[in-house]
Amino acid sequence: MNEKEIPPQFREDNLSEETKTLISSLPSYKDSLGNLYNYRECWYYPNTLQGVLNFERGFEPQKTDIILASYPKSGTTWLKALTIALFERLKNRSSDDLHPLQSHNPHGIVPVLEIGLYLKTSTPDLTRFSTPRVFSTHMPFHTLQLPLKDTPCKIVYVCRNVKDVLVSLWYFKCVQLQKKVDMEPLFESLCEGVGSCGPIWEHVLSYWRGCLEDPKQVLFMRYEEMKSEPCAQVKRLAEFLGCPFTEEEEEEGSVDKILELCSLRNLSGLEINKSGKNLNNLPYSAFFRKGEVGDFKNHLTPEMENKIDMIIQEKYKGSGLKF
Ligand code: A3P
Fold first, then answer.
1. How far apart (Å, rounded) are the C-alpha atoms in residues 196 and 228?
2. Is-contact 222 158, C-beta < 8 A?
3. Is the confidence at residue 112, as pLDDT, over 70?
4. What is the total count of domains within the chain?
5. What sign for the dihedral angle of Cα 134, 138, 139, 142?
6. pLDDT tens digit string along 6-51?
7. Does the pLDDT at position 158 exceed 80?
8. Is residue 197 domain-resident?
9. Ligand 1 centroid vs 76 CA: distance in angstroms?
10. Catalytic (active site) residue 107
């Protein structure tokens, strides 16, 4: 991949003088996509860090805002689709209207704050968003929380088994770099806690603690539970978002319809997701792969599994969070 093909969030061509000064004082390291800097205990590529700073400076929350948060490859696309579908069902649409999920990829509807809306500006035009505005982020809770101040915005976090996240990240990276890359360096950086958005356990724990502190503000979801009990989990999501299913809807099979619409099989078969690309030329199909729990067994050696298990056990000790 030459310099120009590297997606903008990984580059360092969009930094203010202030940010350049800041990053010169931050811990840094380099991976295959470029330099990363540690800001508020999380690793970012330089332009993404600029996006985080722009967000911190400029975001003006509305009390009805909803933010979908995740460590990459934890089920963000699915959570976005479900949230879109939950609110869309409340609109009076004629049966001829195309559902937004049929013509757009979920990431095209729910942008990422720091690598989308705020990447280049602290004052993006947000007038196109109707209420409630739905955004997403990969920032940890302590960073996201700063500009939210005391507003009652709702945050939904989706978390996933670290070993499946690693495998999913690896596949995604191969698509991004358009070649088969070694899993080993990704595994090492994940274990060292130095990957983009890492350390993953600090990310997860930040939202876990946020949820324990204020369960009305933060909903903590797990990809594995969404797979094993999808009806219960989508109802839980709807309750939290303030749009629970009515008895009538349940009798009409509305829960199942939403699950079917948002299923990996259905979404990945839609034309927009088969042949569409995002603004960085990344095919939307890259966001849909197997969607299985435990795929790590096909990719990690017992030693790799063991190392991750030991780290996670140690890091989550005493937190009440179990896998
Ligand atoms: P796998 O690579 O294990 O298949 P993210 O959306 O956070 O980028 O995560 C991507 C992972 O979620 C991929 O996992 C992808 O296949 C899975 N995924 C995407 N859409 C999904 C859906 N509708 N239902 C279940 N899993 C989905």
1. 29
2. yes
3. yes
4. 1
5. positive
6. 888 889 888 999 999 999 999 999 988 889 999 999 999 999 999 9
7. yes
8. yes
9. 7
10. no
- For 173, the 3-state DSSP assignment is helix
Q: Is the CB of residue 230 below 6 angstroms from any atom belonging to ligand 1?
A: no
Looking at residue 48, which CATH number applies to its domain? 3.40.50.300
The answer to whether residue 39 is domain-embedded is: yes
Tokens of 40: 């508020």
Q: Is residue 74 lining ligand 1, measured as CB closer than 6 Å?
A: yes
Ligand 1 pocket check for 299: Cβ under 6 Å: no
For the CA atoms of 269, 224, 52, 308, the dihedral, rounded to the nearest 10 degrees, stands at -120
Span from the CA of 287 to the centroid of ligand 1 (angstroms): 6
Among the listed residues 99, 104, 107, 138, the single catalytic one is 138
Q: Is 188 within the bounds of a domain?
A: yes
User: Which domain covers residue 219, as residue numbers?
Assistant: 3-315
DSSP assignment string, 212-252 = HH-TTTEEEEEHHHHHHSHHHHHHHHHHHTT-PPPHHHHHT
Which residues touch 206 (CB under 8 Å, ≥6 apart)?
A: 140, 141, 142
- The answer to whether 66 touches 134, Cβ cutoff 8 Å, is yes
Residue 78 covered by a domain: yes
From residue 268, give the alpha-carbon distance in Å to each of 4, 283, 314: 29, 11, 37
Written as one string, the DSSP assignment of 62-78 is -TT-EEEEE-TTSSHHH
> What is this structure's pTM?
0.97
C-alpha pair distances (Å), 214 with each of 2, 40, 152, 203: 45, 22, 10, 17
Protein residue closest via CA to atom 19 of ligand 1:
288
Find where tokens 């540690």 sit.
38
Report the nearest atom of ligand 1 relative to the CA of 292.
3
CA of 168 to the centre of ligand 1 (A): 8
DSSP 116: I
